Amino acid sequence: MSHMLEAFNSLAAGPIPDYTPTVPKTLKTPTGKVLGWTAGIGLAMAVLGGLSGWACVAIGHNSERGGLAARGKQAIVWSLVSGMGIGVTSGLVMAFYNMTQG
Fold first, then answer.
1. Tens of pLDDT, residues 35-89
2. Confidence label for 18 from pLDDT (cuts 50, 70 and 90)
3. What is the pTM of this model?
4. How many Å apart are CA 19 and CA 54, to the nearest integer?
5. Distance, CA of 12 to CA of 19 (rounded, Å)
6. How far is it, in rounded angstroms, from Cα 5 to Cα 1?
7. What's residue 88's pLDDT?
8. Fewer C-beta within 10 Å: the chain N or C terminus?
9. Which pLDDT band holds residue 17 (cuts at 50, 70, 90)?
10. How far is residue 43's CA from residue 19's CA, in Å, rounded to a whole number?
């Protein structure tokens, strides 16, 4: 039992001790700002799409508009797909950046 408490305490203190995440110097240029804003706006739009999809599902199920609920479910799925696409794309950009650094 004490091992579990120690594990929980170490996770609560921080899973990676003495680590501060930083952006590489090359990505701090205006190109990095554009990429950051693009990813941020894209993720925000994906969240808004998911929220509006849930609203359409709620309205469609509580009224006699089955088509609205179906479109809301599609919006939820596509907002998840777009969020995953943005995440994969940013991971690929970082992987290619790290490959160029020797």
1. 778 888 888 899 999 999 999 999 998 998 889 999 999 999 999 999 888 888 8
2. low
3. 0.60
4. 38
5. 15
6. 7
7. 85
8. C
9. low
10. 26
The tokens describing 59, both together, are 């309205």
What is the 3-state composition of the chain as percent helix, strand, coil, each rounded to the nearest 5? 80, 0, 20
Nearest 5 degrees, angle CA 47-CA 49-CA 50? Answer: 65
Look at residue 91 and tell me whether its pLDDT is greater than 60.
Answer: yes
Phi/psi zone of residue 96: left (φ > 0), alpha (ψ -120 to 50 degrees), beta? alpha
- Residue 10, CA atoms < 13 Å, CB-side half-sphere: 9
Ramachandran class of 91: left when φ > 0, alpha when ψ lies in -120 to 50, beta otherwise: alpha
- The length of the chain in residues reads 102
As to burial, measured by CB atoms within 10 angstroms (0-12 exposed, 13-18 middle, 19+ buried), residue 96 is exposed
